[in-house]
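Contributing new records

If you add data, match the layout below exactly. Sequence lines come first and carry their own label; structure lines follow with theirs. Keep one chain per record. Anything else will be rejected by the validation script.
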Amino acid sequence: MKKISLVIPAHNEEDNVALIHQKIKEVFSGLKNYRFEIIFVNDGSRDQTQQKLEELSRNFEEVKFIEFSRNFGHQPAVKAGLDCADGNAVISMDADLQHPPELISEMIAKWEEGFDIVYTIRKYPKQISRFKRKTSALYYKFLAGISDVNLREGGGSDFRLMDSSVVDVVRNMNEADVFLRGLSNWMGFKQTGIHFTAGERASGESSYDLQKMMKFAFTGITSFSVKPLYLAAYLGFIFSAIAIFGYGIYVIHAFFAETEISGWASLIMTVVFFGGLQLIILGIIGIYLGKIFKQVKERPNYIIRSKNF
């Protein structure tokens, strides 16, 4: 019997871990030729998530848990589960049931057809705001244009199946800023996608606020390309050329009109604009320097406080 490992990060999901375990168990009750394990990764939860996981692991042998020493983030949590999984294939998914467990059977069927990676393409339900849909679509288009990965709109979900050969490649990577959605695309292999409509969160509230989403977006952009640095250089050349051209026009006008061009407000606005542009460019360079700084220290992506296997 082939073994399927399911990796599920959990941050303050005390009401969801038992429910998603039950849903997954129901799915595998219809898959007689497979055995499974669920690796829950407790990412520094402050509620009763750890106690719930320990209780589940005592009652069900397929339930494993990894407890972090603190909150390290969603991507390191997925990476920890992949590092410890030993199934023939590994499925990563969220604990809030927005990733429907019913899709697992179809993902396994695609894997059996010979695909190494089966990713999912998310469709937002109607209750999700138009702003959320548009910003998500624009982000993935921007990421595809400015980096070396081409994530399809809706294809940035962490709900995916990876063959054990793919997991071995991910396991040997030691990046300080893990961006598994981009890595999955960058690695290649034989891939296919499955469409799904994201479900409603079973209970609790998402811990992904605007600040975390912005940080995650910058991680995705800077993890796979140096194009933003080239963009900064191009902007420097363009605005330098504009400044030289504009100053030439000013000199010619002053010479023939025998007068100076007044305009204190426009001068100040120009100074502020170029000052802001310089700060943006310095910020881009700073992000890359920060990534180098984190990488050369070679600190682990996560620290495990306890686990039951």
